[in-house]
Amino acid sequence: MSALLEVRDLRTHFFTRAGVVRAVEGVSFSLARGEILGLVGESGSGKSVTGFSLIGLVDPPGRIVSGSIRFDGQELVGLAQGDMRKLRGKRIAMVFQDPAATLNPVLTIGQQMALAVRAHGGAGEAAARDLAARTLTRVGIPDAAARLDAYPHEFSGGMRQRVAIATALLHGPDLIIADEPTTALDVSIQAQILAEMQKLARETGTALVWISHDLATVSSLADRLLVMYAGRIVESGRVGEVLRDPRHHYTRGLLDSLPATALPGEKLNQIPGTTPSLLSLPPGCPFAPRCPRADAVCATDPPDVAMGDRLFRCHHPLGLAA
C-alpha cells in the first residue's frame, strides 16, 4: 500500500511563561490508504496534540517547531492557511472528543451539515440536506431527515457525538483523525460506529488515525498501534503483536491496568507514580521514574530498536536480553 501520510521527526512545542512544553517530541510514522492507526497513551502523553498538528489546528502559544507532515505528497508544515482550509474538512477531517467544539448551538443540525457540504462543493440546499440525512442514518440516528431541524441542545451527548462523526464523513475524506470519538457512546452504538469506520476504510480507502486511551477499542479496530508517553512514541507495530507481546514496560503497564486483568474482588493494577511534567522531564528515558526495570543507564536516551515491523525505545526491553 502506498503511503498517504508521512510524518517525520515532528516536534510541537508550547511556549509558556513557565517554560517550553515539548508536547510532541520527535514523532515519526507513516499511514497507508485504508489503514487504521491506533494512537494510545495516558492523558498528557501528546496524543491529541499530535492529531491537532496533523490538521494544522495548533493555536498559540503552541506551534510546530520542526519536522515534516506530508499528505499525499504535499508538505503541510508551513502550508498557507487558505490552502490548508481547502484540505481541512474535505480531504482531511477531524472528530473531536467534545462535540461542543464542533457544533454551533444557534444553528440546526441540518444547517450546520449543509454548510459543511457546500463549503467544499456546489451542491444545492436540497442535495446537501439529503446527503446529511443519509450520513446521519449511517451513524445510527433514527428518523434522520426529521432530526435535521433539531438544535444541538435537543440531542443527548452521545447523539451529538454521532452528529460530529457524521459531519466528518460527509465528503468521504482521504484521512480522518478521530480524537476519543466514541467515549460518550453506549456499547451498542460504539460497536456500530467502529464497524462503520472499518467498512469505510475497507471500501473507500479512507485512512484513520484513532486516538484513544481504550486499548480494548483499539485492539478491535486498528491495524497498527503507536504507544505514546511524554510526547514520544515508545513502541509501535502491528496491533496484535504489540498487545500480545509488548516490548516496552509502559505498554506492559497499560495492559496490566485493564480491569479485565484483575479477578473479582482483587485490587486493580496500576502504573506507579504519575505522568511527568513536560516542563521538567527527567534526563534520559522519561518513563524511568515509574519503571520497575530502571537503572543508571536509563538516565541516558534510550535507543530506537527496530525488529521487523516493531519499533521500541528502551534500554531493557521485555522479552530480550538486557
From TrEMBL:
SMART domains: AAA. It holds the Pfam family ABC_tran. PROSITE patterns: ABC_TRANSPORTER_1, ABC_TRANSPORTER_2. Keywords: ATP-binding, Cell membrane, Membrane, Nucleotide-binding, Transport. Its main location: membrane. It is found in: Cell inner membrane. CDD domains: ABC_NikE_OppD_transporters. The keyword Membrane applies. InterPro entries: AAA+_ATPase (IPR003593), ABC_Ni/Peptide_Import (IPR050388), ABC_transporter-like_ATP-bd (IPR003439), ABC_transporter-like_CS (IPR017871), Oligopep_ABC_C (IPR013563), P-loop_NTPase (IPR027417). GO terms for molecular function: ATP binding. Gene3D superfamilies: P-loop containing nucleotide triphosphate hydrolases. Residues 5-255 form the ABC transporter domain. It is a peripheral membrane protein. Belongs to the ABC transporter superfamily. This is ABC transporter ATP-binding protein. It comes from Falsiroseomonas frigidaquae. The lineage of its organism: Bacteria, Pseudomonadati, Pseudomonadota, Alphaproteobacteria, Acetobacterales.
